[in-house]
User: Fold this.
Amino acid sequence: SLFLDSQYQGAFAVLKDNANTATERLADTLANIRLAVNEVANAAAEISTSTTDLSQRTEEQAASLAETTSSMEALSATVKKNA
Assistant:
């Protein structure tokens, strides 16, 4: 950040101090925004990874359920045949 470092008197000194304070606060605000952006990006990446993992597990459970349904249908057919 650029600061005014020349020596001034009276109202110009006050103006210089206020400008330097504003510059410092703006730099702090921008640093906080950068941190927040990084945190949001990390959270979005975690959500994306979790969503992919959940999708994969859901597909695996659907396949397992289809196998179970097929086995139950075969068992039911066998029971009816033997009844």
Notes: The chain has a mean pLDDT of 96.
